[in-house]
Amino acid sequence: MTALIRLAAEDGIATLTFDRPEALNALNEAMAIELNAKLARLAHHDEIRAIVLTGAGNAFMAGGDLQTMRAALDTKPVVRDRSIGKLVRLAQTVAETVTGSRKPVIASVNGAVAGFGLSLVAACDLAIAAKSATFTSAYGRIGTSPDGGATYTLPRALGTKQAAQWMYLDERHTADEALRAGFVNWVVPDDDLTAQTRALLKRMGALSPDAFAQTKNLIQHAPERSFAEHLYAEQRSFLHCAAGDDFREGIDAFFDKRAPVFGAGAG
């Protein structure tokens, strides 16, 4: 069976490329299963320090596979719900795996983003986009509500009012507009996307993996805590890091006036 997700690993960076360019990399069941399996495997691979998600061809990901959904609509309700429900659950698992990853997951956005593709970019830790990339919710245009955590992650990234505008009106946004809105971190020339993504990951690779994981966890859980509760959570995370080898290495490197060399993290 031909892989729908190409995996390439080099210098501690794993790149997962969605490889259904003829369908604008729309997520079908087989692709979702393969993506979940590869993300799970990379999570336990000690030599991999960061994960990049990108697309083949002119799209990053144009949402879920509408052919699958259209076929399901012509079946009995119980079969329809089972078929569409399975694809949605698989997509939800992808988003949950990305947000729960202790390793940085970077969206390297090469082209069109729509539907679940938008949810997936929002779930990533950082996003770098090609100048020609475009972003749209698209859910309203097909008569459904968002999935993949979009109604959770977009308000956090954009603010409630702007997230509502993106999802209610299904507007198509340029990469520069997404940058100004705070949805992506960087916009680069199309021909420079791969090199700039590698440069970003090189910078991140110099940081402590365990400190990254603790910081990500704190950021994600901050909205659900009171300020006092969050201060306590920060204290626990700081002490967790202080008990590890990376903290000692960081302190020693500071006084030795050299760059620190951190380990693989706490898994």
UniProtKB/TrEMBL annotation:
It is an enzyme of class 4 (lyase). Its EC number is 4.2.1.150. One of its GO terms (molecular function) is delta(3)-delta(2)-enoyl-CoA isomerase activity. CDD domains: crotonase-like. It is found in: Peroxisome. Keywords: Isomerase, Lyase, Peroxisome. It comes from the Bacteria. InterPro entries: ClpP/crotonase-like_dom_sf (IPR029045), ECH/Chromodomain_protein (IPR051053), Enoyl-CoA_hydra/iso (IPR001753). This is Short-chain-enoyl-CoA hydratase. Its main location: other.
